[in-house]
Write a structure and sequence with these properties.
The chain is about 40% helix and about 15% strand. The chain is of the alpha/beta class and about 400 residues long. The chain has two domains: about 140 residues, Aspartate Aminotransferase, domain 1; about 250 residues, Type I PLP-dependent aspartate aminotransferase-like (Major domain) (Aspartate Aminotransferase, domain 2, 3-Layer(aba) Sandwich). The strands form five sheets. A seven-stranded mixed beta sheet has the order 2-10-9-8-7-3-6, with helices on both faces. A four-stranded antiparallel beta sheet has the order 13-14-17-16. Bound molecules: pyridoxal-5'-phosphate. The site of pyridoxal-5'-phosphate has 14 residues, from helix 4 and helix 8.
Length: about 400
């Protein structure tokens, strides 16, 4: 008899996006003449930068000729891409990361989800609340939690992000070994300062813990004083793995290219307390289970670092950030207190009511779809997430409609 991994039965089905779709469908059936504006999406809306498209085409042409054709590439990614990443994303910012510490992959979601398998079963894990669901669900699947009770899994340490701590959680009161952090944050849009991040790095060093730092929204940081990489913090190379993606930076959500940084001096320990390089473990996993990102896609990703590519991606993000500024300003003018939207494409709005009640109000009275904060965790209750990934026209229209709905 073939048996299942029963940990999968513990997973709380994510009704969030199904529930949203169902309510939107019901509204549209009742009001076929009204269009809805989707302000809940966590996906980019603008096309790839022209520099990436050109490089992508060239890559495809090379595959069409016997002289330039390429089969399997290095599992860790081509040197031409890894060197550019090390140069522009790290060395240029004073973070000492070398090309051979970079693992190119087809997504930060996969890497975030896969990395847990190189660690022991009985480690203590800290996850933010609210949170990107991948960190929690992959540990549930691996059997590192108990059952779910009132929306939380037994055995996990939840790091609460609330208005009181301005969405930066305090250190856990009980010892933990693995810590998930995400800045700029999805869903709250909060950013972390150097001083605040140093507290976590110091904690990890003192406790031989490891930080998994998800910096998928790093390119939306506009404040030059904020860290864009955890490796800008002294000592972080010893205790942190960083995840980055071209998805939000350059519109690669459908093209698929990301990377994970594992410094060679970053250690994890065996039963006897003997240190082992996380780099070697991840290299083994990556090489065994992954066969590299498509060559034309890596060519397209490398073009992000060309002069034209940097200008074009900057303009792309500037466009989304103008939307974010507009959304935050409008919501604040309407009396809502907001987080995010300044160095992040997400605006976290305190609705001062049940998340779903506010969602229903915005849908039915304004024809605007948001994401209810409660779907991201217990601490998300009372909030909604608005996304800047949209056209200017849609954002302007949505804000006008919300203003009118609240006045009526
Ligand atoms: C979008 C997103 C990612 C990127 O995932 P890809 O698989 O690279 O597209 C990673 N982390 C967070 C928090 C995200 O929102």
């Amino acid at each position: 008899m073939i048996k299942i991994n029963e940990n999968y039965l513990k997973l709380q089905s994510s009704y969030l996006f199904i529930d949203i779709a169902r309510r939107v469908q019901a509204f549209q059936t009742a009001h076929p003449d009204k269009d809805v504006i989707k302000m809940g999406i966590g996906d980019v809306t603008q096309p790839l930068p022209p520099a990436c498209i050109q490089a992508f085409h060239e890559g495809v042409e090379e595959m069409a000729n016997a002289e330039t054709f390429r089969g399997y590439g290095p599992e860790q990614g081509y040197a031409f891409l890894r060197e550019k990443i090390a140069q522009y994303d790290f060395k240029a910012r004073g973070a000492e990361i070398t090309a051979d510490e970079i693992f190119v992959s087809d997504g930060a979601k996969c890497d975030n989800g896969n990395i847990q398998e190189i660690f022991a079963q009985d480690i203590r894990i800290a996850v933010p609340d609210p949170v990107y669901p991948v960190y929690v669900d992959t540990n549930v699947m691996a059997g590192r939690t108990g059952r779910a009770k009132d929306g939380r899994y037994e055995g996990l340490v939840y790091l609460e992000s609330t208005r009181e701590n301005r969405f930066i959680p305090e250190l856990p009161s009980e010892p933990v070994d693995l810590i998930y952090l995400c800045y700029p944050n999805n869903p709250t849009g909060a950013v972390i300062t150097r001083e605040q991040l140093k507290v976590w790095v110091d904690y990890a060093r003192e406790n031989r813990a490891l930080i998994l730092y998800d910096a998928a929204y790093e390119s939306f940081i506009r404040d030059p004083g904020l860290p864009r990489s955890i490796y800008e913090i002294e000592g972080a190379r010893e205790v942190a793995v960083e995840f980055r993606s071209f998805s939000k930076t350059a519109g690669f959500t459908g093209t698929r290219c990301a990377y994970t940084v594992v410094p060679k001096i970053c250690m994890a320990y065996d039963e006897t307390g003997e240190p082992h390089a996380v780099h070697a473990l991840w290299n083994r996993r990556h090489g065994t289970k992954f066969n590299g990102v498509s060559y034309p896609v890596q060519k397209a990703a490398a073009a992000v670092y060309s002069e034209a590519g940097r200008m074009q991606t900057r303009a792309l993000i500037d466009g989304y950030m103008e939307n974010a500024t507009l959304i935050r300003r409008e919501m604040e003018a309407l009396g809502f207190s907001c987080a995010g939207g300044e160095n992040s494409p997400y605006i976290w709005v305190d609705g001062r009511q049940d998340s779903w009640a506010f969602f229903d109000f915005l849908l039915n009275k304004a024809g605007v779809v948001c994401t209810p904060g409660a779907g991201f965790g217990r601490c998300g209750q009372g909030y909604i997430r608005l996304s800047a990934f949209n056209s200017r026209r849609n954002v302007e229209q949505a804000m006008t409609r919300i203003r009118t709905a609240l006045a009526g």
